[in-house]
């Protein structure tokens, strides 16, 4: 996935997105044509800013948990101690990705009840897979001569992991995190069907009251956030790759 | 001789021991929406079968824990999965008071954890056996037939999820048809449009970045919003384009769901077509040109067959993703298994949620296995041709 926008256009769009989230009232004339029967053009059942922050917060918590668990697991199964788990963990990742997010969300409700919790669980489990998969790819496809050189230089296993293996696989791991965040941003909206406070509330309010303006503004904010976060992480990846003397395609 | 433990076995044994002895095996509820009370294996099953199941679990734990031959582990995991499937049906019949039609018995955490533990064991054995694609398809078929026979035999009829099914048997199959039609139909449309578009993007470099960027941005729009946004345009088409409403195009319902799934499906199809065609070795193309092949012959005879496995991978992504996303269609009246999921969430009736979620997961899972096998078969066929 590549999103190339000239830098200037990008800044203008970012300013517009932030302005819309903070002062949605300014944009009312733009959304008015989408409403019928004098329905409100801007979401009026809560503040877009706090919903956006809650949305981002939920995604952040789930993603951070997923990063920690996924990378620890990937490190574990690529050490001699955990090598027995490697083939199984590969097939589990394959199987896990066939689980639809809605199903995970709905199935988490009986276990933990309505609200943020099922959303966090679904986002965590769903975000785990791309990161784990990429961390595994990164750690298992390191150039053999570099790893040998590290051993030859007298590094302990721990030093080898922290100073050679992890930094070298960082760009690939970051790519997995990027994928995971973009999926989570969109999936979090579905969380509102089980009463989580996310931007999905705006969209669902629009679907229920047949108000296209709500649906469009909820969708645009989420898509905008996804594009910018994607862009930012992509830049981070390029920096990480350049430090390692690699290039990101 | 020192006893050697299997590391995965330790994990499986811990889960299975907790699930069998401490966690509730089945939940009993006086009616479908009140909170339930858990029952352990010994309380949930009739006299002999409870201790028998526990004994089987203990044997399986020992086999999993020690370094045992793969064949033993295979037999043990299959036996346990079948025994659990039969036992949960028996628990349903045993716990439901005779003649009571309101009481609900559903599988509880202990049952699900035991299933998880022994599926893990089975998955590990199957992974280590490195089965060929045909054998994997056969295993899937056997599993599907076994579940079908259990359903047909009525062994599970006293379980809550099948009671929900019994109340909705006709709508269930209608929604199932809608779900499959949505997922497969949009995939078909995406292939018909996406393949030529991908070929065009491959040939005309100026188009490539633009088309892929637009498709990327579509992917970032959350599904419920995209479904909702299409209501307006399609409603307008239905009103103003003659004949459109006659073929079923409406603002709400199946049409916007179909179009949304189609739009989501385009990116993997187009992107994988471009990647697949770009990966065709230059030498193959040069040779084809040297033999005097026309552009069209080169595409259909050389480039396309070589790129086919990569394109199929894109189709696999789309199919699995569409089966999952089609559940969202229910929110805009598009039908599918999502109807049961969202009704169940609305009524806090979890059996109803399961009635929608279980077939969706099973369908996506089966689709993934079938397409993986096909991809492997085409890739190895290609390799054999290359060697010959």
Automatic annotation (TrEMBL), chain A:
<dbReference type="InterPro" id="IPR035906">
    <property type="entry name" value="MetI-like_sf"/>
</dbReference>
<dbReference type="Pfam" id="PF00528">
    <property type="entry name" value="BPD_transp_1"/>
</dbReference>
<feature type="domain" description="ABC transmembrane type-1">
    <location>
        <begin position="52"/>
        <end position="238"/>
    </location>
</feature>
<comment type="similarity">
    <text>Belongs to the binding-protein-dependent transport system permease family.</text>
</comment>
<feature type="transmembrane region" description="Helical">
    <location>
        <begin position="212"/>
        <end position="236"/>
    </location>
</feature>
<dbReference type="InterPro" id="IPR051204">
    <property type="entry name" value="ABC_transp_perm/SBD"/>
</dbReference>
<dbReference type="InterPro" id="IPR000515">
    <property type="entry name" value="MetI-like"/>
</dbReference>
<keyword id="KW-0812">Transmembrane</keyword>
<feature type="transmembrane region" description="Helical">
    <location>
        <begin position="56"/>
        <end position="77"/>
    </location>
</feature>
<feature type="transmembrane region" description="Helical">
    <location>
        <begin position="121"/>
        <end position="147"/>
    </location>
</feature>
<keyword id="KW-1133">Transmembrane helix</keyword>
<feature type="transmembrane region" description="Helical">
    <location>
        <begin position="98"/>
        <end position="115"/>
    </location>
</feature>
<protein>
    <submittedName>
        <fullName>ABC transporter permease</fullName>
    </submittedName>
</protein>
<keyword id="KW-0813">Transport</keyword>
<keyword id="KW-0472">Membrane</keyword>
<feature type="transmembrane region" description="Helical">
    <location>
        <begin position="168"/>
        <end position="192"/>
    </location>
</feature>
<feature type="transmembrane region" description="Helical">
    <location>
        <begin position="7"/>
        <end position="26"/>
    </location>
</feature>
UniProtKB/TrEMBL annotation, chain B:
<feature type="transmembrane region" description="Helical">
    <location>
        <begin position="325"/>
        <end position="345"/>
    </location>
</feature>
<dbReference type="InterPro" id="IPR051204">
    <property type="entry name" value="ABC_transp_perm/SBD"/>
</dbReference>
<keyword id="KW-0812">Transmembrane</keyword>
<feature type="transmembrane region" description="Helical">
    <location>
        <begin position="108"/>
        <end position="127"/>
    </location>
</feature>
<keyword id="KW-0813">Transport</keyword>
<dbReference type="InterPro" id="IPR035906">
    <property type="entry name" value="MetI-like_sf"/>
</dbReference>
<dbReference type="InterPro" id="IPR000515">
    <property type="entry name" value="MetI-like"/>
</dbReference>
<feature type="transmembrane region" description="Helical">
    <location>
        <begin position="352"/>
        <end position="375"/>
    </location>
</feature>
<comment type="similarity">
    <text>Belongs to the binding-protein-dependent transport system permease family.</text>
</comment>
<feature type="transmembrane region" description="Helical">
    <location>
        <begin position="214"/>
        <end position="237"/>
    </location>
</feature>
<keyword id="KW-0472">Membrane</keyword>
<feature type="domain" description="ABC transmembrane type-1">
    <location>
        <begin position="176"/>
        <end position="371"/>
    </location>
</feature>
<feature type="transmembrane region" description="Helical">
    <location>
        <begin position="301"/>
        <end position="319"/>
    </location>
</feature>
<feature type="transmembrane region" description="Helical">
    <location>
        <begin position="48"/>
        <end position="67"/>
    </location>
</feature>
<protein>
    <submittedName>
        <fullName>ABC transporter permease</fullName>
    </submittedName>
</protein>
<dbReference type="Pfam" id="PF00528">
    <property type="entry name" value="BPD_transp_1"/>
</dbReference>
<feature type="transmembrane region" description="Helical">
    <location>
        <begin position="134"/>
        <end position="156"/>
    </location>
</feature>
<feature type="transmembrane region" description="Helical">
    <location>
        <begin position="180"/>
        <end position="202"/>
    </location>
</feature>
<feature type="transmembrane region" description="Helical">
    <location>
        <begin position="74"/>
        <end position="96"/>
    </location>
</feature>
<feature type="transmembrane region" description="Helical">
    <location>
        <begin position="257"/>
        <end position="280"/>
    </location>
</feature>
<feature type="transmembrane region" description="Helical">
    <location>
        <begin position="7"/>
        <end position="28"/>
    </location>
</feature>
<keyword id="KW-1133">Transmembrane helix</keyword>
């Amino acid at each position: 996935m590549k999103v190339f926008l000239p830098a200037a256009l990008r800044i203008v769009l970012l300013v517009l997105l932030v302005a819309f989230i903070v002062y949605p009232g300014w944009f009312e004339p733009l959304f008015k044509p989408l409403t019928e029967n004098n329905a409100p053009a801007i979401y009026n059942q809560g503040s877009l800013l706090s919903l956006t922050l809650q949305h981002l917060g939920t995604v952040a918590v789930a993603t951070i948990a997923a990063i920690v668990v996924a990378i620890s697991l990937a490190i574990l199964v690529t050490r001699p101690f955990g090598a027995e788990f490697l083939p199984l963990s590969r097939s589990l990742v394959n199987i896990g990705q066939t689980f639809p997010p809605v199903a995970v969300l709905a199935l988490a409700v009986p276990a933990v009840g309505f609200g943020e919790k099922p959303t966090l669980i679904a986002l965590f489990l769903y975000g785990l897979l791309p990161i784990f998969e990429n961390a595994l790819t990164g750690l298992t496809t390191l150039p053999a001569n570099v790893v040998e050189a590290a051993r030859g230089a007298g590094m302990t296993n721990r030093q080898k992991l922290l100073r050679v293996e992890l930094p070298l696989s960082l760009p690939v791991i970051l790519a997995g995190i990027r994928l995971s965040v973009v999926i989570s941003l969109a999936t979090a909206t579905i969380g509102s069907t089980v009463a989580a406070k996310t931007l999905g509330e705006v969209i669902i309010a629009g679907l229920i009251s047949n108000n296209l303006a709500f649906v469009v503004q909820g969708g645009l904010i989420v898509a905008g956030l996804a594009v910018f976060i994607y862009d930012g992480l992509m830049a981070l990846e390029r920096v990480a790759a350049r430090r390692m003397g690699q290039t990101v395609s | 001789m020192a006893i050697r433990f299997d590391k995965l076995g330790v994990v499986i044994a811990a889960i299975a021991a907790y699930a069998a002895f401490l966690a509730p095996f089945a939940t009993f509820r006086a009616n479908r929406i009140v909170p339930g009370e858990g029952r352990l294996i010994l309380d949930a099953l009739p006299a002999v079968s409870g201790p028998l199941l526990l004994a089987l679990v203990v044997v399986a734990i020992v086999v999993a824990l020690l370094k045992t031959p793969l064949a033993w582990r295979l037999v043990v995991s299959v036996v346990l999965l079948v025994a659990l499937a039969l036992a949960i049906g028996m628990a349903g019949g045993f716990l439901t008071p005779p003649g009571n039609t309101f009481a609900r018995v559903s599988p509880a955490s202990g049952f699900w954890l035991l299933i998880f533990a022994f599926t893990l064991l089975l998955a590990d054995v199957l992974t280590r056996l490195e089965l060929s694609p045909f054998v994997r398809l056969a295993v899937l078929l056997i599993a599907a037939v076994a579940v079908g026979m259990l359903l047909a035999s009525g062994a599970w009829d006293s379980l809550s999820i099948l009671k929900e099914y019994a109340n909705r048997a006709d709508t269930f199959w209608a929604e199932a048809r809608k779900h499959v039609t949505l997922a497969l139909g949009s995939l078909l449309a995406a292939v018909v449009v996406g393949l030529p578009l991908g070929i065009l993007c491959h040939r005309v470099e100026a188009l490539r970045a633009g088309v892929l960027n637009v498709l990327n941005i579509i992917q970032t729009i959350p599904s419920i919003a995209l479904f909702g946004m299409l209501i307006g345009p399609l409603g307008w088409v239905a009103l103003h384009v003659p004949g459109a409403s006659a073929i079923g195009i409406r603002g709400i319902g199946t049409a916007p769901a179909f179009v949304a799934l189609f739009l989501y499906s385009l990116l993997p199809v187009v992107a994988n077509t471009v990647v697949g065609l770009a990966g065709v070795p230059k030498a193959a193309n040069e040779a084809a040109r040297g033999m005097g092949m026309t552009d069209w012959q080169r595409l259909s005879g050389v480039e396309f067959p070589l790129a086919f496995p990569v394109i199929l991978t894109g189709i696999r992504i789309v199919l699995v993703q569409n089966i999952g996303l089609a559940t969202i269609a229910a929110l805009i009246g598009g039908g599918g298994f999502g109807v049961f999921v969202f009704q169940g969430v609305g009524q806090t009736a979890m059996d109803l949620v399961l009635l929608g979620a279980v077939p969706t997961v099973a369908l996506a899972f089966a689709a993934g296995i079938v397409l993986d096998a096909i991809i492997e078969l085409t890739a190895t066929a290609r390799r054999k041709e290359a060697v010959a």
